[in-house]
Write a structure and sequence with these properties.
heterodimer, A: 314 residues, alpha/beta, 5-stranded parallel β-sheet, two-stranded antiparallel ribbon, 16 helices, 12% strand, B: 498 residues, 6-stranded mixed β-sheet, 22 helices, 8 strands, 60% helix, 9% strand, elongated
Chain lengths: 314, 498
């Protein structure tokens, strides 16, 4: 039994191992990775920004000791950047070499037809793997021992690109017109796709994936996360700041703080040698967790009540 | 077990979660891997495979709780029976063992089914009146029942009972159940079909008896009868969820789509909103394959060189820098005075639900004075924005002339040949000045002016309605008073504005 198999033996062992790698996850998340491994299916991860979607893929890669291949999606991303591209420079050189040897090849040929036949016999490598520059998707398929493929923010790409992904997601293969079908080596990659839901992902894509929705964590989980990420922070302050953030999430804000912001704030408070939250301090460090001036203004008059609540939560 | 899964999927589909056959297969594979033992594990597993949006996950959660409820109270025999009722028809005995095992695991304690069955009515099923008059007869000898159902009940044979129950359900056509008020009726019918009248007769006869074992039997039968009623109720409930809930819902939705929007009652707003979103979503998928409108710009030199390298550097495939064309604009001008307010509510809801494919929408509300409410919609949730709009601008008598004047003052300059203007109102101007010359001006500047009138066409010019004066200056005037109308109009709009 390999290490990976041992890790993926049960949901609990996965969860523990994630914790060892300082990624605290819910049962749902661990189940997703478990199923992804055993059913060999891609996972589409959705959720608000900053809840650890990309982090999950990264941690999985380190945990399984697999290389991580990442493809960042954006508008206008096409197959030349995602799957493969020809090495034009080398192809040019090749044609020049070909030109020089042309005389040898064609020596003694009579008539146009025979020349062309000779040329065909010569063997054409103009479009062959020699001159192919693999891009992330193809690279992931070519990895010998499998890898973790992260297709980040797939919602930012165009509709056409989504269709391009379908083949690789369902069969772990890509078709290149000039060469044929490239299939995954023995171990297909584990694929994670993330989406911030800026637009609806097509049903065809969703159908091929396991769908994992990561919501904001509850108090306990978030405490654990902070504990794992910023272990130096005193427990009392940790409870306070998590309570504060949770309260904040219930408010009507333009952008609610995510886990990454909670972690940043914890680090900030640690740096300031804070023992306990007080309104003045919160006001001064608020820009770490709220990213819109409007939001900061909006909750300004509530800060003291919120802080009070957080402090008394201990 | 597959049958359980497929019927669960059927229930989910009824609850509007879209599940393709491919996903059903995935679910089967996943469950093969995970098994049914651990309820939470099963729930997490299926949650990954079946529902594919956040909304669907919510629906899934509740449906799962309802459907697999029997596993939760699994210590009780009732659960086994309910489950058997589902499967008993085909695969009776063998299945039961597995089911029992699973429950034992999650309940943590497995008592013999027999004792559980007797214990159960004490907790819930016994009616109040029974408790009062029940005398303590102690334990001891019990007579044997005579009626068929009585015998069955005393046999402790769950499989037999569940088969009977399923048969009876078939006999009374349970699958035709339509609305939830019928649940009681069908429960009664199934009980009758199973031989309840005989049992009741026997019980009352036994109660009169002076014989102690007889009276004990009467008590016991009574208990078990109550317990059976619960089982049947459960069974009916589940079948109802399976077959009818969605049908009834669909019926209501169908009605709501056609009903005049001004007649929609407040309690149906939520439902309507859901329908609007669903309609909007359909339109979104229909129109989301956005056509790329690029204007040809200047030559893109690096790209051209790169593209043409494969042609030995001979440049014949030229690449151009593309210029994206500005998005077209939609202005919605809504009359929000009393009679038309509801229509405005739903049209705005529709327009903003289409955010994804709809060009930028600016909205204006008026009854006498006109004000822009775009920002209100940007900052608030749609429902809140709508109610705020209606509250702030709703009162007052309608004055279309004034509204047009205001519109001209505020943003006629923004109207250009890519602007579509939708006016929603009944054109009832309280005999005021129509100012149709302003509408003419708008008409000439914009790409399209659409007037949606909630009133039927034949009343467009009666009384103080002034449609006649306005229609020459609109490209299209439509009657629009139900969701279907709205959907059609907005659909057409999408075709033209993109």
């Amino acid at each position: 039994m390999t290490d990976i198999q041992k890790l993926a033996e049960s949901v609990d062992s996965l969860k523990d191992s994630f914790e060892d790698h300082r990624y605290i996850c819910s049962n749902q998340i661990a189940t997703a990775v478990y199923l992804a491994y055993h059913l060999r299916k891609p996972v589409l991860i959705e959720g608000p920004p900053g809840v650890g979607k990309t982090e999950l893929a990264k941690t999985t890669a380190t945990m399984f000791a697999l290389p991580l291949i990442r493809l960042q999606c954006y508008e206008g991303l096409d197959e030349a950047k995602a799957i493969y591209e020809w090495k034009y420079g080398k192809q040019l050189l090749y044609t020049q070499v070909l030109k020089e040897t042309l005389d040898e090849v064609l020596q003694g040929a009579t008539g146009f037809r025979e020349s062309v036949n000779r040329l065909h016999e010569f063997g054409d490598i103009f479009f062959s793997e020699e001159f192919m520059e693999p891009r992330p998707l193809l690279k992931a398929l070519q990895e010998e021992d499998g890898c973790v493929l992260l297709i980040d923010e797939v919602d930012k790409s165009d509709h056409e690109f989504e269709s391009l992904l379908l083949e690789i997601l369902s069969d772990f293969q890509v078709s290149i017109p000039e060469i044929g079908t490239v299939k995954a080596r023995a171990e297909p990659p584990m694929v994670f796709l993330t989406s911030n839901n800026t637009r609806e992902i097509s049903d065809a894509l969703k159908r091929r994936c396991l769908h994992l929705y990561i919501p904001f964590p509850d108090v306990d989980l978030e405490q654990k996360i902070i504990h794992a990420r910023v272990p130096e922070i005193p427990p009392q302050l940790r409870t306070q700041l998590v309570t504060f953030i949770q309260e904040l999430r219930d408010m009507d804000l333009k952008k609610v703080p995510a886990i990454s912001e909670t972690i940043d704030w914890a680090r900030t408070l640690l740096l300031l040698h804070t023992e306990s939250l007080d309104p003045e301090l919160v006001r001064e460090t608020l820009n770490v967790i709220l990213k819109f001036q409007e939001d900061i203004d909006n909750i300004d008059h509530e800060i003291s009540t919120l802080t009070q609540k957080a402090v008394s939560a201990n | 077990m597959d049958k359980t899964l497929t019927s669960f999927i059927a229930t989910l589909r009824n609850a509007d979660v879209r599940i393709s056959p491919a996903e059903t297969l995935d679910a089967l594979n996943a469950v093969e891997l995970t098994g049914y033992r651990d309820r939470e594990f099963l729930k997490n597993t299926l949650a990954l495979v079946l529902p594919k949006t956040a909304d669907e996950k919510d629906t899934y959660d509740t449906t799962f709780e309802q459907f697999f409820r029997f596993a939760e109270v699994s210590g009780e025999s009732s659960t086994t029976l309910a489950a058997d009722g589902e499967e008993g028809e085909g695969e009776g005995d063998g299945e039961r063992q597995g089911q029992g095992d699973g429950q034992g695991g999650s309940a943590g304690q497995t008592k013999p089914t027999n004792s559980k069955r007797k214990a159960r009515p004490r907790f819930s099923a016994v009616g109040e009146e029974d408790k009062e008059e029940e005398e303590d007869l102690g334990s001891g000898e019990i007579s044997n029942p005579v009626s068929a159902l009585g015998k069955l009940l005393m046999q402790d044979s769950r499989v037999e009972l569940s088969v009977q129950m399923a048969d009876a359900a078939k006999e009374v056509n349970l699958d035709e159940i339509q609305v939830f008020t019928q649940k009681g009726l069908y429960t009664r019918r199934i009980m009758d079909q199973m031989g309840l009248p005989d049992l009741l007769k026997e019980v009352s006869a036994l109660k009169q008896s002076f014989n102690l074992p007889d009276r004990r039997l009467a008590q016991e039968l009574k208990k078990r009868q109550e317990w059976l009623r619960e089982q049947v109720r459960d069974y009916v409930e589940r079948q109802f969820l399976l077959h009818a809930d969605a049908t009834g819902m669909r019926l209501r939705e169908e009605l709501l789509r056609k009903i005049k929007l001004s007649n929609v009652e407040h309690r149906n707003f939520r439902l309507i909103q859901e329908i609007v979103y669903r309609m909007a979503k359909r339109l979104v998928t229909m129109h989301s394959q956005r056509k790329k409108v690029f204007k040809r710009g200047t030559l893109n030199v690096p790209r051209t060189l790169r593209r043409n390298m494969s042609y030995d550097g001979h440049i014949f495939d030229l690449q151009w820098k593309s210029v994206k064309v500005d998005r077209p604009k939609v202005f919605a001008i809504c009359d929000v005075s009393g009679s038309v307010a509801n229509y405005a509510r739903f049209m705005l809801m529709f327009l903003y639900a289409l955010e994804e494919v709809m060009p930028k929408v600016r909205s204006f509300a008026f009854s006498s004075d006109l004000a822009e409410v775009t920002e209100l919609f940007e900052r608030n949730k749609i429902e809140d924005a709508i109610s705020k709009t209606l509250r702030d601008f709703g009162g007052g008598s309608t004055d279309y002339g004034q509204a047009l004047v205001d519109f001209k003052k505020k943003c006629l300059d923004d109207v250009d040949n890519r602007t579509t203007i939708i006016i929603l109102g009944d054109a009832r101007n309280n005999y005021g000045d129509c100012k149709q010359d302003i509408l003419q001006e708008i008409y000439q500047r914009s790409k399209r002016v659409i007037w949606l009138n909630p009133e039927p066409r034949n009343t467009w010019n009666t009384g103080d309605a002034e449609m006649r004066k306005y229609t020459p200056y609109v490209h299209q005037a439509e009657e629009c008073n139900s969701l279907i109308h709205l959907e059609r109009t907005v659909g057409n709009l999408l075709k033209t504005v993109q």
